[in-house]
Write a structure and sequence with these properties.
The structure holds 2 protein chains of 2 kinds. Chain A has no helices and 11 strands. Chain A is mostly beta strands. Chain A is globular, with a radius of gyration of 13 Å. In chain B, about 0% of the residues lie in helices and about 55% in strands. Chain B is built from no helices and 11 strands. The chains are: A mainly beta, B mainly beta. At the A-B interface, strand 5 and strand 9 of A face strand 5 and strand 10 of B.
Amino acid sequence: NAGVTQTPKFQVLKTGQSMTLQCAQDMNHNSMYWYRQDPGMGLRLIYYSASEGTTDKGEVPNGYNVSRLNKREFSLRLESAAPSQTSVYFCASPSNTEAFFGQGTRLTVV
Amino acid sequence: QKEVEQNSGPLSVPEGAIASLNCTYSDRGSQSFFWYRQYSGKSPELIMSIYSNGDKEDGRFTAQLNKASQYVSLLIRDSQPSDSATYLCAVPFSGYSTLTFGKGTMLLVSP
């Protein structure tokens, strides 16, 4: 039982490049989230999807887009990466009692 | 404004001592509260949830909730070096389907 799977684990981008972070969950949950974590800032919500076909902005959505491809998959896209987007990104999928996290993607934008 | 406040630490305790971690939240309507542990370079993992005023115990961990004071705490008894991690308080605010996290408290347990 994999839970929440994120790819890639590490990525280095040049300023202006684009990339998509992939997330998949096999727990049949309706909701999925994308967070970013920066030193001293905790986990901040970028976008979330409460159900298949819906997406909503979180606390820090600027510079990102998301796609809820189906119930299992929720991707995060950086269209034109900036150094300020250097961070650790976590995908999460909540049940009624807890949120399950992927292993994280460490992204560096140079 | 959705706010979850925690002392950033580090909180340093000797092995065997009780570690006390605190969290305050801004939404009086919040009904559920979660404590996550995050080891360096790893993803957060749930260690405790609490929904009612009072104490909830699970092994060496006790969560305490006071809704009137908008305060939730986590006590770790007989602290071990393996408890050294960052502890995140998380609250789903009323009317929202998402979790808001505090910035976390780093706990260091020295042998």
